[in-house]
């Protein structure tokens, strides 16, 4: 755990180095330090990672990625698959964290509901790379929404992910990539990963919101059953 704490400390140092958009009122309401990253929840030894865009107010309040309405849909689907029953409450949903890792493109909450700029994502990319390659032990990533999927574009030949995303079967097919990261000593590490994209489970995503539970279930069945 010392190593992951070191990475979290380095992320906070980077956040303090120069200003970037932070939803400070939400952090203040939650009694949380805005520059303290909320990097992940779950098990670093799990085979599956669920990768979202960034934090919301519920995530800040509870110090966990994917805790709010959209995240609860993901957690409920995981619980249903893993335990073949419905969770009674959010406390019971916590059981899924033994078998999944939850994280985001940036471990902070932007003001409002706007995605972080490419510049902010690039600024924190080396840390997210190192987290996924050097700390997490799995090899399958479910991405939630376009921003989360696009984050992985640098790890495939140019245009590969864009071409994949134009396919009609993108939410049932998979895309292999090779994640790369440089550790704190400057050593390069690589890991083959399979991306399993899904639409973002937001009520604002009218095209796919109703379909999301079934699409998620199909992904999870292929992984856990």
From TrEMBL:
Keyword Metal-binding: yes
Every Uracil-DNA glycosylase-like domain range: 39-224
Keywords from the named record: 4Fe-4S, DNA damage, DNA repair, Hydrolase, Iron, Iron-sulfur, Metal-binding
InterPro entries, per database record: UDG_Type-4/5, Uracil-DNA_glycosylase-like, Uracil-DNA_glycosylase-like_sf
Gene3D superfamilies reported for this sequence: Uracil-DNA glycosylase-like domain (3.40.470.10)
A Pfam family recorded for this sequence: UDG
Signal sequence, renumbered to the chain: none
SMART domains recorded: UDG (SM00986), UreE_C (SM00987)
Protein name (database record): Uracil-DNA glycosylase
Source species taxonomy: Bacteria, Bacillati, Cyanobacteriota, Cyanophyceae, Oscillatoriophycideae
């Amino acid at each position: 755990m010392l190593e992951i704490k070191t990475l979290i400390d380095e992320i906070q140092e980077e956040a303090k180095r120069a200003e970037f958009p932070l939803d400070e009122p939400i952090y203040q309401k939650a009694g949380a330090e805005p520059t303290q990253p909320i990097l992940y929840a779950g098990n670093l030894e799990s085979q599956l990672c669920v990768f979202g865009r960034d934090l919301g107010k519920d995530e800040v309040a509870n110090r966990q990625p994917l805790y709010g309405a959209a995240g609860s849909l993901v957690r409920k689907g995981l619980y249903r698959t893993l335990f073949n029953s419905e969770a009674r409450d959010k406390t019971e949903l916590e059981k899924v964290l033994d078998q999944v890792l939850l994280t985001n493109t940036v471990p902070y909450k932007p003001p409002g509901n706007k995605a972080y700029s490419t510049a902010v994502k690039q600024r924190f990319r080396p840390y997210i790379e190192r987290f996924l390659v050097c700390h997490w032990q799995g090899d399958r990533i479910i991405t939630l929404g376009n921003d989360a999927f696009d984050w992985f574009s640098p790890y495939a030949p140019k245009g590969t992910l864009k071409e994949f995303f134009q396919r009609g079967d993108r939410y049932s097919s998979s895309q292999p990539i090779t994640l790369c990261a440089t550790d704190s000593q400057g050593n390069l590490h690589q890991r083959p990963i399979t991306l399993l994209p899904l639409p973002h489970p937001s009520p604002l995503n009218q095209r796919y919101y109703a379909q999301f539970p079934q699409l998620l279930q199909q992904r999870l069945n292929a992984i856990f059953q």
